[in-house]
């Protein structure tokens, strides 16, 4: 591509593999989304089709190797099609995204491999999506847990083979995950230490039930960072935050699961 071309925006990063991982995770949650790009960075704020998952992604302009975007643009993207284009990116690739002034109906994607002296260019058709701003009021969470992302992934995947929901509790200096299925029950307790820390604004016990099928999708972001932050508050969505390989962060919020009468002692009407 011509570095001196007439571009409305042009951004480049050597962290192509994390972008591939991010797009793979997003396509499982959001079929389509508006990407807002301006001089400060890229942002996605969108809910999934079930209106139980909220995605808040922010990639910061100063974390990219090159970033030029003097004005704000909103790009309607089919996330499944985007992943089809970037899924072959490797750790040795660089990624360039751009829009040419002469054609604002497409977003350009260039995958560069310096070792092989290879350059592949795609032009992704943009789609028109409704713009529905989502405002989130400030919230003080009762507990914020930091723990290894791999540990969280393993427990969520294991529990998803047992049942549909997981009960997540923060009590004292422990994080307790319980799952009850037709043939077995599982309880896993994480205590402070061994890579886990807890910050609490209240001494109350924080507890919620959440659908495992959504949390399993969240864990597709695991390879983006070594540690995650879990935000908990009673009667409020759980938020899992991943760092996007130093480029920014993605927060994935999941509403509590609908209560079932079979949940002993924890059912909420």
TrEMBL record:
<dbReference type="GO" id="GO:0006272">
    <property type="term" value="P:leading strand elongation"/>
</dbReference>
<feature type="domain" description="Proliferating cell nuclear antigen PCNA N-terminal">
    <location>
        <begin position="9"/>
        <end position="131"/>
    </location>
</feature>
<dbReference type="InterPro" id="IPR046938">
    <property type="entry name" value="DNA_clamp_sf"/>
</dbReference>
<dbReference type="GO" id="GO:0043626">
    <property type="term" value="C:PCNA complex"/>
</dbReference>
<dbReference type="GO" id="GO:0003677">
    <property type="term" value="F:DNA binding"/>
</dbReference>
<dbReference type="GO" id="GO:0030337">
    <property type="term" value="F:DNA polymerase processivity factor activity"/>
</dbReference>
<protein>
    <recommendedName>
        <fullName>Proliferating cell nuclear antigen PCNA N-terminal domain-containing protein</fullName>
    </recommendedName>
</protein>
<dbReference type="GO" id="GO:0006275">
    <property type="term" value="P:regulation of DNA replication"/>
</dbReference>
<comment type="similarity">
    <text>Belongs to the PCNA family.</text>
</comment>
<dbReference type="InterPro" id="IPR022649">
    <property type="entry name" value="Pr_cel_nuc_antig_C"/>
</dbReference>
<dbReference type="GO" id="GO:0019985">
    <property type="term" value="P:translesion synthesis"/>
</dbReference>
<feature type="domain" description="Proliferating cell nuclear antigen PCNA C-terminal">
    <location>
        <begin position="136"/>
        <end position="256"/>
    </location>
</feature>
<dbReference type="GO" id="GO:0006298">
    <property type="term" value="P:mismatch repair"/>
</dbReference>
<keyword id="KW-0238">DNA-binding</keyword>
<dbReference type="InterPro" id="IPR022648">
    <property type="entry name" value="Pr_cel_nuc_antig_N"/>
</dbReference>
<dbReference type="Pfam" id="PF00705">
    <property type="entry name" value="PCNA_N"/>
</dbReference>
<dbReference type="Pfam" id="PF02747">
    <property type="entry name" value="PCNA_C"/>
</dbReference>
<dbReference type="InterPro" id="IPR000730">
    <property type="entry name" value="Pr_cel_nuc_antig"/>
</dbReference>
């Amino acid at each position: 591509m011509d570095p001196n071309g007439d571009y409305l925006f042009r951004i480049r990063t050597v962290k192509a593999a994390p972008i591939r991982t991010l797009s793979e995770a997003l396509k499982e949650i959001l079929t389509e989304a508006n990407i807002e790009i301006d001089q400060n960075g890229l942002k996605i704020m969108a809910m999934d089709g079930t209106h139980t998952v909220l995605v808040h992604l922010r990639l910061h302009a100063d974390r990219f190797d090159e970033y030029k975007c003097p004005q704000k643009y909103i790009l309607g993207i089919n996330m499944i099609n985007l992943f089809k284009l970037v899924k072959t990116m490797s750790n040795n690739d660089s990624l360039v995204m751009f829009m040419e002034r002469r054609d604002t109906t497409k977003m350009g994607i260039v995958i560069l491999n310096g070792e092989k002296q290879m350059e592949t260019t795609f032009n992704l058709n943009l789609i028109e999506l409704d713009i529905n701003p989502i405002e989130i009021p400030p919230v003080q969470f009762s507990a914020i847990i930091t723990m290894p992302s791999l540990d969280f992934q393993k427990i969520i995947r294991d529990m998803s083979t047992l049942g549909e929901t997981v009960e997540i509790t923060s009590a004292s200096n422990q994080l307790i995950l319980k799952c009850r299925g037709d043939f077995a029950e599982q309880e896993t307790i994480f205590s402070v230490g061994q890579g886990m820390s807890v910050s609490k604004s209240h001494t109350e016990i924080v507890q919620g039930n959440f659908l495992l099928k959504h949390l399993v999708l969240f864990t597709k972001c695991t390879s983006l960072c070594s540690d995650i932050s879990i935000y908990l508050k009673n009667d409020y969505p759980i938020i899992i935050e991943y760092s996007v390989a130093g480029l920014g962060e993605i927060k994935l919020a999941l509403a509590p699961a609908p209560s079932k009468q079979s949940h002993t002692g924890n059912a909420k009407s």
